[in-house]
Specification:
The chain is α/β, with parallel strands linked by helices. 36% of the residues lie in helices and 15% in strands. The structure holds pyridoxal-5'-phosphate.
C-alpha cells in the first residue's frame, strides 16, 4: 500500500455549504422545514427548466417509492424495470408488493433496450394486465434512448419513471436528464456527482402531483386542525441541513460536470492505445453524459488482462475500482421474476470495471493511474 487512498467517487464540497448550514442553525430551522429546502428546490427547478416541479426527499430510493405511489402501483401490478442498475431502482417495486419485470440493455447506451421493452409489455398484456410504470435508468450518467423508449411508452400509454439518480447534468438532444419522465428522480447520495450527504428529489410535470408527493412524504397528513390520516404515508422529507449542503453544491455543479468530462478525456487518451479495452462513451452527438463514472469493458485478449487482474493491481496501489452493477435479473433477491432480452447486461457485468472518477482526482493521482495502466500487458 502506498500514498493516500484514491476513491472511486468521493464527495467534493464546494465551499459555501457550511454557510447555508449555519443559516439553518442561526434560524433554528434544522429539521424538515426551512429556507434551504425551498431554495434548493427552486434552484433545481430553474436548472432543469421544462416546467419541472421538485420535491426534496431523504433519498433517491424514497423518490422512486413516492413515484410508484403517485402512479398507484399496488400489490400484483407489473412494473417494467431496467435490469442493469443499482438495486435502489427496483427495491421500491417490492415495497409496493408489485411484480418487477426486468428489461435488458442495448449496446449503445447500456440502458433499456426498446425491443426487449416492447416484448415485455406484450407479455404483460397477454397476462391480462397493463404494466403500471416503466423505470428507465440513465446509468453511469449516460442518458437512455429517450426518443425510442418514450415512443413505446406513449404507444401503450404507460408512464415512465426516469431514474436519473446518476445523471444530473447529462443531456439528450440538449434537454437535461430529470425532465424526460412523467416522474423523474435524481439522487444526492455521497458518491453522486453532487451530494446533500444523503438525499434525493422527485421531479414531476405539474404542481398537483408535487403537492401529492409532499403529502405522501410527510405521513399523508390531511389538512385539518387535528392529525387526520386516511392512507399510508412516509417520513421521507429532506432536512433543511441537507438542503443547505445541496444549495452549496448546486453552485459548483457546472464545474463538477466539466471535471468529470475531463476525467473521461484523461482515460480516453490512455485506452485509445488498447484494442482489447473499450472506454464506454457517448454513442453520438445526441448524448451528453456527465460521465459520473468512467467504465471500461475488457475483451478476451492474449495479454491476460482481466477485470479481476486490474482490480487487484489497483487495490495493491490503494486505489478503489468497482465491477459494474450486477444486473437485477441475476440477483438472488429477484430470482423468481421475468427477464426480457439476450443478457447483454450480464455480459457487460462479466467484463466491465468502473475506474476512479471523482472530481477531486488530483494530477498526482492521475499520473499514478496512468502509470499503472500503461503497464498492464504481459
Ligand atoms: C444512487 C442510486 C439510486 C438511489 O439513490 P439513493 O439516494 O442512494 O437512495 C437509485 N438508482 C440508481 C441508478 C442509483 O445509482
Amino acid at each position: 500500500m502506498q500514498g493516500e487512498k484514491i476513491w472511486l467517487s468521493p464527495p467534493h464540497l464546494g465551499g459555501s455549504e457550511l454557510k447555508y448550514i449555519q443559516d439553518a442553525f442561526d434560524t433554528n430551522w434544522i429539521s424538515q422545514y426551512g429556507s434551504n429546502i425551498d431554495a434548493f428546490e427552486k434552484t433545481i427547478e430553474d436548472y432543469l427548466g421544462y416546467d419541472s416541479f421538485v420535491t426534496a426527499l431523504s433519498s433517491g430510493t424514497a423518490a422512486i417509492h413516492i413515484a410508484l405511489r403517485l402512479l398507484d402501483v399496488k400489490e400484483g401490478d407489473f412494473v417494467l424495470c431496467q435490469s442493469f442498475t443499482f438495486v435502489a431502482s427496483a427495491n421500491p417495486v417490492l415495497y409496493q408488493n408489485a411484480i418487477p419485470v426486468f428489461i435488458d440493455s442495448e449496446a449503445s447506451t447500456w440502458n433499456m433496450c426498446p425491443n426487449a421493452l416492447e416484448d415485455a409489455i406484450k407479455y404483460c398484456l397477454q397476462q391480462g394486465k397493463k404494466p403500471k410504470a416503466i423505470i428507465a435508468v440513465s446509468l453511469y450518467g449516460m442518458p437512455f434512448m429517450v426518443d425510442e423508449i418514450t415512443e413505446i411508452a406513449k404507444k401503450y400509454e404507460i408512464p415512465i419513471i426516469e431514474d436519473s439518480a446518476e445523471a444530473l447534468g447529462s443531456k439528450y438532444k440538449d434537454r437535461p436528464c430529470g425532465t424526460f419522465g412523467d416522474l423523474s428522480i435524481i439522487s444526492f447520495n455521497g458518491n453522486k456527482i453532487i451530494t446533500t450527504s444523503g438525499g434525493g428529489i422527485l421531479i414531476s410535470r405539474n404542481q398537483q402531483l408535487t403537492d401529492k408527493a409532499l403529502y405522501l412524504a410527510t405521513q399523508a397528513k390531511e389538512n385539518r386542525d387535528y392529525y387526520s390520516h386516511s392512507e399510508v404515508g412516509y417520513n421521507y422529507r429532506m432536512s433543511n441541513i441537507s438542503a443547505g449542503i445541496g444549495r452549496g453544491q448546486m453552485e459548483v455543479l457546472e464545474d463538477r460536470i466539466l471535471k468529470r468530462r475531463e476525467n473521461h478525456s484523461f482515460y480516453n487518451e490512455i485506452f485509445k492505445n488498447y484494442d482489447e479495452i473499450d472506454l464506454f462513451a457517448e454513442p453520438n452527438d445526441d448524448f451528453y453524459s456527465n460521465y459520473w463514472l468512467n467504465t471500461i469493458t475488457i475483451e478476451e485478449n492474449n495479454y491476460q488482462i482481466t477485470k479481476e487482474k486490474l482490480k487487484k493491481i489497483f487495490i495493491e496501489n490503494n486505489i478503489e475500482t468497482r465491477y459494474l452493477w450486477k444486473p437485477m435479473h441475476l440477483q438472488t433477491l429477484f430470482g423468481g421474476y421475468k427477464f426480457f432480452g439476450n443478457n447483454l447486461c450480464g455480459i457487460l457485468f462479466d467484463k466491465g470495471l468502473c475506474l476512479p472518477s471523482g472530481t477531486n482526482l488530483t494530477d498526482e493521482s492521475k499520473s499514478k493511474i496512468r502509470d499503472l495502466l500503461t503497464d498492464i500487458r504481459v
